Amino acid sequence: MTVERLDQCFAACRAEKRPALVIYLTVGDPSVDDSVACALAALAAGADILELGVPFSDPSADGPVIAAASQRAIRAGGSLRAALEVARRVRLESGAPLVLFSYVNPLIAFGEERLPTALAAAGVDAVLVVDLPPEEGTALRAGLLRESLAVVPLIAPTTDPERERLVLEGARGFAYYVSATGVTGLGDAPLSTAARRARAIADKSSLPVVVGFGVDGPEKAQLLARAGVDGVVVGSAIVKAIAAEPDGAARVQAVTALVSSLRRALV
Amino acid sequence: MTALGYYGEFGGRFVAETLVPALAQLERAVHEIVLREPFQREWRDLLSSYVGRPTPLWRAERLSRAVDPSGDLLGELWLKREDLCHTGAHKINNALGQVLLAKKLGKTRVIAETGAGQHGVATATAAAMMGLPCAVYMGAVDVARQAPNVARMRLLGARVLPVESGSRTLKDAMNEALRDWVTHVADTHYCVGSAAGPHPYPMLVAELQRVIGDEARAEWAEGPGGLPDTVVACVGGGSNAIGMFRAFISDPVELYGVEAAGEGLDTERHAATLTRGRVGVLHGARTLVLSDDDGQILEAHSVSAGLDYPGVGPEHAALLRSGRAKYLAVTDAEAVAALHLVARTEGILVALETAHAFAGLPAIARAEHARLGRPARVALCLSGRGDKDLATVAEHTP
To answer: Residue A84 sits in a domain of what CATH number?
Structure first.
C-alpha cells in the first residue's frame, strides 16, 4: 500500500467532486490513548487523511495553539515512538492514508536509517517534515522512497516558479501548499489566492495539492472546496477543540462534531 | 564551507519552505554586497568612528601571575578588549553589519533574539542609529536576570518582547524570532546574534566578527611579536570565538573554546553542547545539540544567560570533529570565581560569558605547557564587560 493508498484516496475524492479532508492532531495531547480515540473519531466523521503530528520541543513553524499542544504532549509521553503506536492502532481499524508530520530532529534522534521500515511497519504512508527543504535530507528521502513512502513537498507563497519545480521534483502522493507566510493557526490567510496557486501547481504537476494554514472551520473549508482545491488541511482548530474539553468522551464528541461540519462543508 | 553552507557534516538550512527564498536572498547579498569593497568601507568606517575600533590588546600580567604564580605554565597573557566596544561587547560588530545590510536590502524593520541582552542592545543601538524600528525577543527568565539590558534596549527605542514559551530562555527567543520572521519575511530582516542558525547566518556572522581576530593577529605581530601559541574564547553559540579563531585557523596556533558546564557536566544542568551534545538540528542548522532520545531539545543551564543555549554554531561542531579546535567546559562557580579574580587583578569587570574563558585558563595553560615544553603565550578574547551581571554575581558570590 503506502503511496498507492494516497493515490486511491485522492482519486476517490475526485470521483465525488470534492476535496480530501486532511485532519491534523498532535500525538499525545493530552494522551496517546486520546490521540487514538480522536483519530478514529475523525475518520468515522468523514476525514479522508490523517496527519499524526510528532510533538517537538521547539516548533518554530507553529503558532501558539500547536506549540502549546506540543509542550503538553511531550509532558504526557508524546513522541515519534508514540506516533508510531497511534499509527499502528489506527491502522488496525482503518485503511485511510496516514501522514507522519514532524520536525527533523525527532527523526534524527530515532535514527534516520531505521525510520523508513519502522514507519512502513506501523502503517504510515507518507512523511511531511516541516523543516526539511528539498536541498536537505537526501539520504532520509531515499530511504523513505525505498519503502514506498511519499515525502510530502511543501510550497509557500514565497516559493518562486523555478524553486517550485525543484520542490516538486520526483514528488509522489500529494503536495502541500502553505496558504500564507506565517505560522500555523493564523486567522487571516488569503485563501482565495492560495486556492488559485494550489490549482495552478496541481495542473502543472498532475499531483494533488492540498491547502493548509488558516483553515479554522467549515466556512473557510467551503471557500477552498468551491475554489476546486484537491484537499483541505485543518490542524489548529482540531487541536484547539481537543484542548477545550475536560475528558476523553467529550474530546471524541468535539472532534466528531467539528470534522462532521467540515466534511459537510466540502460536499 | 560548501555551497549549501556545510562545515563538514554540520550546517545547512533546515527551515520551513517559506523562509528558504529569504535565506537565499540573504546569501546572495552576503556575496554581492557584504563581502565587497563599498560595504566593507562603510561598515569599517562605522566600526572605527562609532564603535571605537580597533580595540586594544592588553597584557594581563597580574592576572597571569595569579593564575600561575610560577610563570612556568602561563607565559604571556594578552586580552583582546572587546569590552571597550560601544555597547560593551563584540556583538555590535555583527549587529552594525547586519542592520546596514538590512537598509541596503530595503528592509523596513529588524528583529533579533537575545540571551544576555548584549546582542539585543547592539541591534537596538544599530537600529536607532540607522533609523529602523526594532523588536527584540528575549526569554522571560532572561528578562528578569538581565534587567539593565532590558532597560537599555527600551531607552534605545526597541520593543522588548518577553517570551513565555518553553524554557523561556535564548532558544525560545530564537523560536519566537523565527515565527515573527516567517510572518513578516517580506519587509523584515532577522538579525541573528550568533554564528548559529540556517545558512548563511553562521558564515555571515563569522565574516562580521572576524574583525576581532584579524585585529588581534596584527596587534600581536606588532606588540608581543610573531604569533600567540594559543587563542582562547568562550563559546555559547560561538560568535566571538569564531571571530577570533578565523584569523588564526591556518596558523600553527592552538584554538580553545570554553563552554558552560553550569552546575557540572554530570548533572542535567549545563550548556556544554560540544562536550556533551549529540548530532541534531536546532534553529535551522545540523550541529551538536543537547537533546533526549526522542529528539526533544533539552533546557540548557548556565549562570551566564549568553551561554545558556542547547545548540552551537555548526562551524564549531566541525572544528571539534576535525580536531582543529579544542573545547572544554567550566562550571558556574569556576566562572564566577574567575570574574572576581580578573576584577581584582586587572581592574576589569568582565561579563559572565567571558569569565568562562578566563576560568579555562589553568587547564589550558597546563595542556599547552605539555604540548610546547615551555610557558604558553596566550591571546584571550575578552568578549564583553560585566556591568549587566552585577545582580547575578552578587547572588552567586558566597
So the answer is: 3.20.20.70
pLDDT on residue A1:
57
Residues of chain B with pLDDT under 50: none
Which residues of A make CB contacts under 8 Å with B?
A: 56-61, 63-64, 67-68, 71, 74, 79-81, 103-110, 130-133, 135-136, 154-160, 163, 167, 178, 181-183, 186
Q: Average pLDDT, stretch A148-168?
A: 95
Residues B233 and B156 in one domain: no
Domain boundary among B150, B167, B202: B202
Q: What amino acid is encoded at A60 in this protein?
A: S
In chain A, what's the furthest Cα-to-Cα distance?
49
Give the ipTM of the model, two decimals please: 0.96
In terms of domains, do B197 and B248 share one? no
Is residue A62 within 8 A of residue A26, CB to CB? The reply is: no
Which range of residues forms the domain containing residue A197?
3-266
pLDDT tops 90 at residue A260: yes
* Cross-chain Cβ contact A56/B283 below 8 Å: no
Tell me how far CA of residue B99 lies from CA of A7, B104, B123, B210, in angstroms.
48, 9, 7, 17
Give the pLDDT score at A187: 81
User: How many structural domains does chain A have?
Assistant: 1
CA distance A164 to chain B (A): 10
pLDDT attached to residue A2: 78
Residue pair B246/B314 in contact by the 8 Å Cβ criterion: no
> What is the Cα–Cα distance from B309 to A267, expressed in whole angstroms?
49
What's the CA angle centered on B397, arms B395 and B398, to 5 degrees? 115
d(CA A152, nearest CA chain B) in Å: 12
Among B182, B202, B222, where does a domain finish?
B202
- Looking at residue B374, what DSSP letter applies? S
**Interchain pair A130, B16: CB under 8 A:** yes
Residues A56-106: pLDDT tens digits?
999 999 999 999 999 999 999 999 999 999 999 999 999 999 999 999 999
Q: How many domains, in total, are found in chain B? A: 2
Q: What single DSSP character describes residue A250?
A: H
- Predicted confidence at residue A131, as pLDDT, reads 97
- Are A178 and A213 in contact by the 8 Å Cβ rule? The answer is yes
Chain A hits for B18, CB-CB cut-off 8 Å, are 61, 156-158, 178, 181-182
pLDDT at A139: 94
